[in-house]
Specification:
Length: 431
Amino acid sequence: MSSFSLRDGMELGSASAAAQIEGGEVEHNWMDWQRRGHIKDGSSPARANDHYNRWQEDDQLMADMGMRIARIGVEWARIEPQEGKFDQSAVNHYVAEVRWLKKHKIKPLVTLHHFTNPMWFEEMGAFEKRGNVQYFMRFVTKMVQAFGKDVTEYITINEPNVYAMLGYYFGWWPPGKKRFRKAMHVMSVLTVAHVQAYQLIHALQKGIGIAGTHVSYAMNMQVFEPENPHKFKHRLLAYVAERFFQASIAKAMTLGVFRWPIRNLGKIKNGLYCDFIALNYYSRVTMASMQSGTRKGVPVNDLGWEIYPQGIVECLRFLMQLHPLPIYITENGTCDNGDAFRCRFLFDHLQTLCKSGLPVKRYYHWCFIDNFEWLEGESARFGLVHVDYKTQKRTVKRSGEFYSQIIKQNGVTEEMYREYVEPQQYKINAK
Ligand code: IFM
C-alpha cells in the first residue's frame, strides 16, 4: 500500500535535546568529554546550532512546517552552573521558549535530563551515588515551579539505559568507565531518580491546582536477535542483552517491579510510574558476542544501523504488555547525511505505526535540525532541516517538506508517495 492516514488524533512533531542544539561553552560532562578529544570528527557542542540564540527562528520554522507538538530539553548545567546557585536568566530563557511555543499552538513536552550533567554533579559521582538523587530533585523542583501551568508534559530522564551502558559499561561516553556492575548500579539509581521525579512533579503540580500533568521516562529500545538462531550461545546472548539493556529497567521504571540486575535502592513500591509510554526507537541488532552486530543484506543508515520499521511495533508491544497506556514515540529517525532515504524511512515507520492498531497519540521525529550527535559530532545528520554549521543557515530538506505535507494532509496520499518515497531506496549492508 502506498498511502495511509494518520490515526485519529495522532500528532506529529519533532524532538531535540538542549546540549545537541544550543551551542555555548557550557560546563557539562559532554563539553569536558569533547575537550578530552573524544569526539570523532573533532567538533564541539559549543557550536552546534546556536539554538540558544536562534530558538525563535527555529521554533517559527517548526510552526511553519505545521508542527503542533515539540519535545524540547532544558540544560541543567546552564540553569545550575554551580551547586545550589541557579541562573535565573537561564530559567527565564526556557520559560520564554515554552510560552512562545504555546502562543504559536505548539504543545511542549519537556525533557529534564538528556545525557548531560553539570560538571559539579559529574565530579561528585553523578548517578553513581544514590545520595546524589537529591540534587536532581532540587533541579526538577526549580524547573517545574518555574514552568507552572505552561508545561503539563514531562520526560524525567532520557534513555537511562543508553546513559548507563555507554558511559559505565562500554566506556565510550563520559565518564568512560567500563564496569558491568557499575552500569547496573547506575541504572538502579536512575530508577530511583525517575520514580522520585515522577512523584515530585505530580505533587508540585497538584500543589498549585494544575490537573492533568503527564509524566514518563523515554526508553530507548532495540530489537535483539541471535545472529544465528540455531546457536544456543547467540540465543542466550540476545536474551541477556535484551534483559540487561532494556527489559529489566523498563519494568522497574514503569511498575516498580525489580528483577536482576536492577535493584530497588529506593524502597519503591509496586505501582505505576508513568502516564504514557515514551519510546525512542531506531534499530534492530544481532548478537553473537557481547557487542551487537547488523545482519548482512539488510537496509542500513549512514551509521550502519539496520532500518527495521516493524521493530517499532515489536518494542511497543513489550511496553504495552507491561502496562497499556497511550503511546508517544518520543524519538524515531535516522542518520541520512544526503537526505537520500529519510522520506522512505518516515513513510515506512509511520505506516507501520498507523496500521498496528496500537494507540499511538504522538510521533516526535528525531530530529528537527541536524545537530551535535554525541560521539559522532557534526558528522551524523538526523535533521529534517539542514544546517550549514559555518553560517548557521537553516534549509528545510526534502524530507522536511514531506513531513510537513504529512502533517497538513493527515497522512500520505498516492501522489505524495510517488513524489517523495518511490524515488528513494535504502542502502544495503554489504558487510
Ligand atoms: O541523538 C540521539 C539522542 O540524543 C538520543 N537518542 C538517539 C539519538 C540518535 O542517536
